Structures are given as C-alpha cells and as structure tokens.
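BUG-238 | component: ligand-complex export | severity: low

The export step for flavin-adenine dinucleotide jobs runs without errors, but we want the raw record kept on the ticket for reference. Input record follows.
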Amino acid sequence: MQALVIYAHPDPSSFNAAMRDVTTSTLGEMGYSVQVSDLYAMGFKPTIDRDDFATTFDARHFNVTREQRHALEHRGLRDDIQRELDALLAADLVVFHFPLWWFSVPAILKGWFDRVLVSGAVYGRQYVFERGKLAGKRAMLAVTTGGPEAAFGPTAINGDMLDILMPIHRGILGFCGMTVLPPFVGYFVPYVGDGGREKLLAAYASHLRAVEQLAPLPMPRLADHAETLAPLLRTKAE
Ligand code: FAD
C-alpha cells in the first residue's frame, strides 16, 4: 500500500511537522510505503498561470480547464505538477497535514489542489463523486487549530468543524471520487502545553492506526441526481 503525505506548513519544526512524523512512522509500521511532499520545502508554486503548461490550447483566451485537458493529452504539464499527479495516482491513501488558516487551508495547499487536481486526470464532467477518477483512494485531513475545541460545534461561535472542512472534504476530495475518512483535529495546539501536545500526538497515532476501520464521511452520489445534476426525488419505498 502506498501513502502520500502532503505537508503544508512553513516551519519544519512545527507541531504539524511532529504530526507528519507520526504519520510517516505509524503508516510505515503498518506496512505502507510513504512518500512526503513538503510543499514549502519544495518551493511549490501555488498559482496557476501559462507557465504551468508546455503546450497551448488557445493562445488568446486562457481557459485553465481546457489547457489542463490539452496538456494532459500532450504530456504538456509542468514537471512539478506531473510529479505530484503521478504520486497522487500511485497512492492508496493521501494524508493532508495543515494548520487551519482562516477556516481553510494555507494558500500553498490550495495551490496544490488547483494545480495538481488536473481536469481529465482526476475528475471530468461525468466523472465526479462515486464516478470520480480518484475512486478507490482514501483521503484524510490532519488539521491543527489555534482555537479551542469549545469554539467548534453546531452551536459554537466558529460553527461545526465538519462544516468548516466541507469545501475540502466534499468540494475537492469527495468530488474527485476519493473515500474521505474522518479528520483528526488537534485543537488549541499552541496553548495546551507540552503535556497536552504529547496527548494530541498519542491520540493522533491511535486515529491513524484505525485508518483501515474508520467509517468514511457520507458523500453525495451522481446516481442520485439527474443529468442536470438536480437531485432525483425518491420516495421512502424506493
Ligand atoms: P506550532 O506553533 O508550530 O507549534 C505549537 C507548539 O508546539 C510550539 O510551542 C512548538 O514548539 C510545539 N511543538 C512542536 N513540536 C512538538 C512536539 N513534537 N511535541 C510537543 N510540542 C511540539 N486558528 C483557528 O482555530 N481558526 C482559524 O481560522 C485560524 N486562522 C489562522 C490564520 C492564519 C493566517 C494563521 C497564521 C493562524 C491561524 N489560526 C487559526 C491558528 C493556527 O491554526 C494555529 O496557530 C496552528 O494550527 C498551530 O499549529 P502549528 O503546527 O503551527 O503549531
């Protein structure tokens, strides 16, 4: 089994790095072969532009999706994108490590999603959710926050963590067909002290050791939608 770890933090000595090291050692002990993409260390380019493509589909109008599809067919993706895409396509499990920044991912990770999740390679018009091209692969987020756990929840000030992560879980990973596992969230990490952080690392290792048994998050299914993508209405009897 192959695991790909995407690490998106500017500091190699961060708590996120400690969690990433738990991932590599724990998955290694479980028999996974683990590859890490350390986005900051790689100087990963976070924005899409024409330099991403050695090929040109339309020199006048830069339609990213069309350029991606054209480049994919003609081996025209820039090397850094192709390398990450190859690693993704080879992986059975992908773990994303990042601090929650503004209820979302750091820009460098958003850039990885934008540039590596190439149209035609990982999704297509008829190839989303259960028909997405990454079907069969599992994905998991390993997130840290500055906010305390009490600040997250259905009635809490920040709202529910699964609602905050929904654009990533559903809009990106599930959309491309991946089986999305429940995230691990290390809350309040700068403020819980060394003892608290040791407990978080131990809890994370337990979460990870159970990765084969974790029940995936529910995702919508294309099969429950019409060609227009409007939901099909089903009666209870159906
Ligand atoms: P670090 O600061 O790297 O580490 C915390 C502590 O752990 C440090 O003292 C470090 O020395 C120590 N440590 C490192 N390794 C170990 C180890 N092996 N064992 C024990 N201790 C260790 N928070 C929110 O809740 N919601 C937001 O929307 C949000 N938006 C943000 C936006 C921005 C732009 C920024 C900069 C921060 C934001 N935050 C937010 C806070 C952010 O999520 C946290 O600061 C971050 O998640 C903390 O994780 P870290 O890895 O950066 O911690």
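Assignee comment: Attached the raw record above. The pocket of flavin-adenine dinucleotide is lined by residues 9, 11, 14-16, 18, 99-103, 144-147, 189-190, 194, 197 (CB under 6 Å).
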